[in-house]
Amino acid sequence: MFASRQKGSETSTAGILKSAHCGPDPVRVAAVGDIHGREFFVAFRGALAAVEDPDLFLLAGDVTDHNRREEFGEVVAAVKDRVSCPIVCVFGNNEYTADHGEYRQAYDLIYLVDESHSFVVGGKSVRIIGSTGSLDEPTWWQRNNLPGIAQEYEQRVRRLDQLLAGDDVRLLLTHYPPTFATMGGEKEEWRPQLGSRRLEKVVLGRRPDLVVHGHVHKGIPFAEIREGQATLEAFGGDRRPVPVHNVAFPVTKAVTILNL
Asked: How many domains does the chain have?
């Protein structure tokens, strides 16, 4: 079971955003997104220096900017110099779909594209479901350059619903936020082009132990989504809130440390 602080999670002077956990032998998860290559690389490398012995390291997309693969590699190299644990990555909108194969060939990570992967850490099994995520409305650029993208987003919501089924320990990792709850100062009219309330309904129905995302630079680092924010028509009556962490580096200025 995951336990987390409310908004304003504790931030250490070393540059790690932490959340609390009660219970023995937690799985330590480090997570960050939206480094945007060299844009935030120097600050990210400073925050990374404070990360100690995570069991898993998550990259929540937009590791680079404008598909600059060499900058993606610089970020990955910095992470690998610091940690020895598995590194799990989802692609953001700045890692262009047509080049995903080249990223996979060039940089040895665990990439999740509408997929799940199970890990056993200290005898505890954790399943990570990973995806770029979905938007309720494609952006103007997407509508004009990516035919069929709206249907793809709808299919992705259905696919993630299937992947999230189960009562095991599950973590959902996306780039686009699967809720509006962490959008903070983002304009209301832009929110459907930044994240997905349709996917929020899936999250509340399937209830993963933890949700991690990036993308929203004017958002807040933490929120809880509850039954009242979406329907549970098909999913029984569990009323626990689901903790959601926005790990976009422009928001946290840190590597977020979470315990499962």
From this structure: 1
CATH number of the structural domain spanning residue 215: 3.60.21.10
SS3 for 200-245 is HHHHHHHCCCEEEECCCCCCCCEEEECHHHCCCCCCCCCCCCEEEE
Instruction: Determine the longest span between alpha carbons in the chain, in angstroms.
Output: 51
Kindly state the tokens that stand for 110.
């665990």
Residue 164 lies inside a defined structural domain of this protein? yes
124 strand-pairing partners: 121
Q: Is 22 exposed, middle or buried (0-12, 13-18, 19+ CB in 10 A)?
A: exposed
3-state helix, strand, coil in the chain (%, to 5): 30, 20, 45
Domain range spanning residue 212? 16-259
Q: Residue 135: inside a domain, yes or no? A: yes
Helix axes 69-82, 41-48, angle to 10 degrees: 10
pLDDT in tens, the chain (260 residues): 333 333 333 333 235 555 444 445 799 999 999 999 999 999 999 999 999 999 999 999 999 999 999 999 999 999 999 999 999 999 999 999 999 999 999 999 999 999 999 999 989 999 999 999 999 999 999 999 999 999 999 999 999 999 999 999 999 999 999 999 999 999 999 999 999 999 999 999 999 999 999 999 999 999 999 986 444 444 455 678 999 999 999 999 999 999 99
